[in-house]
Amino acid sequence: MSHKWPQLDYLGWRETCSALHLYLQIAGKYRLAHTPWLNHSWNATFYATPRGLTSSLIPDGPGLEIRFDFVDQEVQGTSGDGKTASFALGPSTAAGFHGHFLKLVADLGGTPKFSGVPNEVPFPIPFSEDERDRPWDGEAVQRFHGALLAIDGVFKSFRSSFLGKSSPVHLFWGSFDMAVTRFSGRRAPLHPAGIPTLPDDVAQEAYDREVSSVGFWPGGGGIDYPAFYAYAYPEPKGFRAASVGPEAAFWHEGMSEFILPYEAVQSSADPEATLMEFLVLTYGATTDLGGWDRDALECAPGRRGKPRPHDAAVPGSGQPAMDLKVEREEATSKGRYFVVVDGVVAEMTYSRVSNDMIIIDHTDVPAALRGRRIGEHLVRKAAEDARQDGVVIVPLCPFAKAQFERHAEWQDVIARS
Question: What are 43-56's pLDDT values in tens digits?
Answer without folding.
Answer: 999 999 999 999 99
